[in-house]
Amino acid sequence: MKLILKSGLSSDTVYTIDDLDDWPVEGTSLAVLGHPVKHSLSPPMHNAAIAELATTDKQFSAWTYYKFDIPPDRLEEALAKFHKTGFRGLNLTVPHKVLATELVTIGENEVELSGACNTLLYTASGYEGYNTDLYGMTQAIETDFSIRLKDKEVILLGAGGAARAAAIACSKAGVQRLTLANRTLSKLDTIATSLNRLEQRPTVKTCQLPGELPFTCDDLLVINATSLGLRPEDPAPADLSQLPSSTLVFDMIYNPARTALLKQGEALGMPVSNGIGMLVFQGERSLRIWSRKDPSPHEMLKAVRAAMNSI
Ligand code: NDP
């Protein structure tokens, strides 16, 4: 959905920090900040949910979600400007999620545990940071596969920000056995350390990719939180052929919609799902934090699918 506003602003345009100098004061503004951010699906997704909220509560007809390209060395300056301009909420995507934790007050424990935040809420004294990726992943997996995460033994591929959030989410959901797998083995230490700070934590094993994936039972879930798969020609980060055919395979990547990992899972008869649901559910929780209402994940999913078809 492309919104052209009276002020001449558009939810489709990529804005920069300089555009904040004469940002109009009317209405309520939200935005995603990234670098690059051109292909973000967050503006159409949020604006669709906001339009739906506006059908029952008129205040939301003055809300619009924009996108801003902000280089990391200008994030601090940008956040001060967004605050001065009165942006009610911000989402942070690559490469800002970790850096932002130093620049905001911590809104919830998940930010400290994951070392990252993707959602900022305006308060009079500055922005407050939340991490809705944990909720997004848990909800997506439980909805897509109709399961409870806690009932699964999990093999988690990756050791970056998304993997760290996923490991915390698995632990919080009550997963009993977790295998952490990554190309660079030493990077798994940070995740193991943050899990050690939790009261409820799984038994953790580590292993190096590519290599054989260890498992102890048939109730397996593989989560890909590596970025291998983002390019259509990328190989799978791990070989699934030694795992039981009942293994569920969840890839956080949603574009391309079918990575090599998901294709292999499908060929082996495994139930598979990509990261669209995670994108939608993390967005749903962000909008709930800003609006204090329950936005419709269904409207958000419809908008994401439509936007993906038009890329
Ligand atoms: P990071 O850059 O922090 O981490 C990248 C990870 O991928 C590391 O574990 C890295 O391994 C691994 N990796 C990269 N290249 C290769 C390769 N050639 N072979 C094997 N492993 C490789 O990324 P993030 O954690 O921020 O994001 C990871 C993925 O999750 C991305 O694809 C992102 O799009 C997706 N994501 C999806 C979301 C959603 O809403 N659906 C939300 C958040 C993230 P090493 O340590 O060895 O370098």
Number of DSSP strands? 13
Strand content: 15-25%
**Which of globular, elongated, flat, extended, rod-shaped describes the shape?**
globular
- The string of secondary-structure elements, in order, is EEHEHEEHEEHEHEHEEEHEHH
* Mean pLDDT across every amino acid position: 94
By CATH, the topology of the largest domain is Rossmann fold
Q: Radius of gyration in whole Å, from Cα?
A: 20 Å
The major pleated sheet works out as: 7 strands, mixed
Domains, number: 2
Please give the share of residues in helix. Answer: 25-40%
Note the gap between the termini. 13 Å
What topology, given as strand order, has the largest sheet?
Answer: 1-3-2-4-6-7-5
CATH class of the largest domain: Alpha Beta
User: What hetero molecules are bound to the protein chains?
Assistant: NADPH dihydro-nicotinamide-adenine-dinucleotide phosphate
Q: Which consecutive residue ranges, at least 5 long each, have pLDDT under 50? A: none
CATH superfamily of the largest domain: Leucine Dehydrogenase, chain A, domain 1
Helices, by number, come to 9
CATH architecture name of the largest domain: 3-Layer(aba) Sandwich
User: From the helix content, strand content and strand pairing, which structural class follows?
Assistant: alpha/beta
